[in-house]
Amino acid sequence: MTTTLPIGPFISAPLKQESSGVDFLGLRQANLDMMDECLPGINNYTRYVRVFSVISWIYWKFHEQAQHLEIQNPTDEQMTRFKEKAEILFTWGHRGVDPGGIPGITSVPPTPSGDVDLSFDAWSRSPDNTSLLAAPTYGPASKTTGGLGFIEPVKKNFYRTRGHGVKLAQALDRELAKCEGYSALIGLDLFSGDECLAESLLPAWDVRTPSDEERAAFRESFYDQSTVGGKNKIARRSLTISWLLKIMEAAGSPMTLAQIRQAMAYRHVEGHGLVGVDDSVKDAWLAWLILQTRQAQRLGFEALLAWVEDRVLYESEKSMEDILRSALTAIKGHPQFFVRMQVAGDLLSTLGQRYPTLDDYLNSFAIPTQDCIFRQIDVLLDALKNNSDDLVPVALKLLATCAHLTRLIRDGYGAPPQLSIGGRDRVSLSFWCDILDKWAGRPLNDFLLYLLENLILSQHFGVAASRFDGNGQRLRLTIEEEGLTPMVSKRLEPFIGDDRLHMALLLLADSGVIAKTTDESFLALPWKG
């Protein structure tokens, strides 16, 4: 598609959709890059081993059947028809049990009973978002290009099963071959079926019951302790998992997702104190701590953007002078952290007095502390939810804590490269820390004006302009003759982005490395694969 970009001034149209984007300050990619350092190859949707088996089986079986039928050059259309048939029967069979987390499971058959066409068109399904191979679901995680390496793209929409994917496919095929509907499933000339056919196949590929062979094949691709120390994806992922398991083993009892996330960052397991780090897991711990710090920093900046929108939308504040005045009023009304603060440097000096080293900060978690970034995240999310006047001071304190943590990490461990991910354009942790140092001696109100004008508004304007394609625009605010003008009808609702940890825990449990208890907690097992 050819788009003609404007060559002069123009009036921006309002956002067509209030939800047209999740990254209005351009900070998200740095977080994703950090996640890819810690837990590469998966995303925040991939929770079942069995789905990887089904994907691997589809392409393995298609090529096997084509060879059996002496089809020399199978076409894209033949592969697509076979894939869609298998996917529809797979999701149709699960509709009655609906374990959650299966793309396309809400699709309904074109007619209420009898044989139906087993194609995405007939079922009004989109391959871009309801297929197992869709980009937001299991597609990227299944491929040799960036994922776990089960299927390899030969050309667009044409794949072959590779590596441990073959083991997954063969193990699943042995289960499917026991089903009455197997011959209909594997036929390359039959593309219709009924609900009875789908239900007959369910016991063989139910996502809740992967076979021992599938679990073993998946483990070999997902976690291999012997690779730790390498630079490839499985080595980086296995390093993070090794640290995760060390934390869980130190606890010796079930831990919730939130407890695991926090303990991996702070090395503190309730009732057991600090967990030691040696050279084998130090890099994993630091990378995880930095990721969680960046997660908090992004939320802090986006919360300030939401607050500015709130002032413009509901308080009719059009000038930065009015908005700055409101910010200072909010800070003065929240004296716990900001009492006697006069210059920007006081934001860090207060924390520096409490925690001169990273060990001092980590040791503080033996007792409750208000300086925990996870606790501050919860407080900030509550302030956003309740439209609290505390939103500005709470966000500012969280951002100051992120900068202080960055300084402590740099002082104790040099300059881990993750601190610089994002650079100036995406406001890396190092860049943000340097900004606070640069403004240390300036009055707090001058610094706040710089922060709101440059790192919130100008940052948003620059990101929106860079993403303008000549059609849809991403501006939430503009500057008109009367001042700041909203382009939306309601303010942004920031949230803390998923960091893939939950999916990693579910996959580890599904493959038998750890146990998932009935109360949604996870428990280390004595398994030492």
Describe the structure.
The structure is a single chain. The chain is mostly helical and 529 residues long. 50% of the residues lie in helices and 6% in strands. It has a two-stranded antiparallel ribbon with strand order 1-4. A two-stranded antiparallel ribbon has the order 2-3. A hairpin with a 2-residue loop joins strand 2 (151-155) and strand 3 (158-161). Helix 5 packs antiparallel against helix 8 (212-222) and helix 16 (373-385) packs antiparallel against helix 17. The longest helix has 33 residues, at 282-314. It starts with 27 loop residues before the first helix and ends in a 5-residue tail after the last strand. The relative contact order is 0.14. Mean pLDDT is 92; it is low at 1-6.
In short:
This protein has 529 residues and is mainly alpha-helical. It has 20 helices and ten strands. It has helices at residues 28-38, 49-68, 76-94, 139-142, 164-176, 182-186, 195-205, 212-222, 233-251, 257-266, 282-314, 320-332, 335-338, 346-354, 358-363, 373-385, 391-413, 429-438, 444-466, 501-510, and strands at 116-117, 151-155, 158-161, 192-193, 268-269, 273-274, 477-480, 483-486, 514-516, 522-524.
Question: What attributes does this structure have?
Answer:
single chain; 529 residues; mainly alpha; two-stranded antiparallel ribbon; two-stranded antiparallel sheet; 10 strands; 50% helix; 6% strand; globular; disordered N terminus
